[in-house]
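Dear Dr. K.,

Following up on our conversation at the group meeting, I've run the structure prediction for Ig-like domain-containing protein from Poecilia latipinna. I'm pasting the input sequence below exactly as I used it, so you can double-check it against your construct before we proceed with anything downstream. Let me know if the numbering doesn't match what you have in your notebook.
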Amino acid sequence: VGLSCPSEILHVSQRTNDHTAEVPRLISTTERKPGDNVTFSCQSSNDHRFSQWYKQSPGKMIQTMATGVYGKMTATKTFSNTRFQFRRENNEMSLTIHSVKKEDEAVYFCQSGTEFLLTFHNGFLLVVKDCNQQTSVYVEQTPDAAAVQPGDTASLQCSLFSAKSETRPRCPGENFVHWFKSGSGSSYPSIIYTARNSTDNATKRSCVYHLSKTVEDASDFGTYYCAVAICGEILLGGGSKLETSMYLHSVLNFVLVLGGLLGCCVIVIIGLIFYITGRRVSDSAEGWHSIFYQHY
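The predicted structure tokens came back this morning:
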């Protein structure tokens, strides 16, 4: 008996090490609207005596929803209502949530195992899309304009802000953000990219999407717009204009020439004012002299 314990502990340790060496599984995402039903299922081994379901809401500690021994699942006090159903039949364990609410938005984990090793099988992210609770949002693009030449790379940014500074909008997935280009001889705006790089800026409470565009020739000049599809609406940015720096230099030179001409005009006008004033003073002096000589 004394020799069996170390070997059993070693066996458990090896299984634990093998488990931690596995590549973590990806958490699947499921979207539902308020009032819908959703079911999550996991496959476990028949020799797994114990089973559990867990819930982790954003920014909160993990909660135990239900525990089970063999086929009997018992919900904890918080989740012991008819909206939550926990089942285990043979090697399948499932969780069903009826009449989904916004508060159900969380990550759900299933776990099963023996007295010596418990294994997390899957994780499920439930996203509840309640447009009634989505605060008013707006889109801003930067920069407004950029001067580039063929071969340059321009970085465009599209930000989704909430109208209320204390709240942050629910960031849509990349498939709901697109970039369009108009101008440079094209009759209609054309879609060029879906959003590739996105960040969730917690400090500024915004969703930020980036587009890096390398200008190859004159056809790449024009105005680029980002379009965000959210809650059945499409929000369009103000546009970022990419134009050749040669054009801007021409405009700048034109402005400088106009400024020079305006300066010359001012100088001429000032000179004329002094000339006219001097003539008047001279004529007045001559008049006084002639009056003086006639009197004497």
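Two things stood out to me. The longest strand covers residues 118-128. The longest helix spans residues 245-295.

Best regards,
J.T.
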